[in-house]
Amino acid sequence: MSDDIAVDPVEPVITLHVGFLLMPEYTLSTFANAVGMLRMANRLSGRELYRWSVYSLTGEPVASSAGLEIQTSGALENTAEIKILLVCGGYNIKKYCSKLLTERLRAFAKRKVPLGGLCTGSYALAAAGLLDGYRCTIHWENLASMREEFPKLQLSSSLFAIDRDRYTCSGGISSIDLMLNLIASIHGHQLVQQISEQFTCDRVRTEKDAQRAPLQYLIGASQPRLVDAVTLMESNIEEPLTLDEVANYVGISRRQLERLFNRYLHCAPSRYYLELRLSRARLLLLQTSIPVIDVAISCGFSTAPHFSKCYSDLYGKPPSNERRVRA
Questions:
Q1: Per-residue pLDDT of the chain (327 residues; tens, 9 = 90+)
Q2: First vs last Cα of the chain: how many Å apart?
Q3: Which residues, listed in sequence order, are joined to residue 168 by a DSSP beta bridge?
Q4: Which residue in 23, 89, 240, 279 is deepest, having the highest Cβ count within 10 Å?
Q5: Prediction pTM value
Q6: Class in CATH terms, 223-326
Q7: Where are the domains of the chain?
Q8: For residues 151 and 35, what is the distance between their CA atoms, to the nearest angstrom?
């Protein structure tokens, strides 16, 4: 019999190297929030799960929109150690999308490196043709112009979007949600829960959560009847109007109403109205202790089973589970 003692091998740590490309006038808070999530993941796990480097296109320090400069690791090149590259945008992003930037980004894409855009960094990827056919998002101020300039994009008004090897977020604190969802997909939800507690986040938002943006920014200012229709829906949550009533109030036919919704909001008006009511219900479930049946009634649902089914279809869990998770 051998005297050797069997020892379970320690699972090796695979460190994921994330590269951040800072564009001139980038949004400092969005960048800092993203890095903060990676730092906390390392701290709480006690391991170097993530490493990050900061680059500019030329290697020079880059000033943020707040005027603060950050030293970089050098010029962005097709560095083999980078496993994910995130472009950090901000003001005047179109002005800085040069031919050199497009060439560098395409070189990473050719190597199958996952790419992402924080805030208006999505524009840089779109301008390089690297978001065609992907679901993506950008800050709400840029949504209407992006739809016009890049019709091949599957542009969403969500806080963030993860579609295969493309990661985009709308800016602000949405980079927290993007990075936490990325960390969860690799290292699990328990670590993400611990990170959330450190940053006093009451919940990790998902791709189902939309940006709270003025509708005219989402569709442009050329469709006042559509804006009126949505405003009417938002004002009649507890006792929903019929589509014929909505169309009549804004002075168009029901068929015209359906065409406007399908063209500019990419869904039927009935679907938009339903999701509007369910979104309101979710806020009530997460932020109040109102009984579920009362939430259902206040959002225009006559029975609890119907409310539960619609809620589950949209959010993947019944309303009772949503509240248990919150608790």
A1: 334 333 334 456 789 999 999 999 999 999 999 999 999 999 999 999 999 999 999 999 999 999 999 889 999 986 778 999 999 999 889 899 999 999 999 999 999 999 999 999 999 999 999 999 999 999 887 876 787 788 888 988 888 999 999 999 998 889 999 999 999 999 998 999 999 889 877 777 777 776 766 666 666 567 889 988 988 998 898 999 999 999 999 999 999 999 999 988 888 999 999 999 998 888 788 767 889 999 999 999 999 999 999 999 998 889 988 776 555
A2: 54
A3: 117, 161
A4: 89
A5: 0.67
A6: mainly alpha
A7: 16-198, 223-326
A8: 32
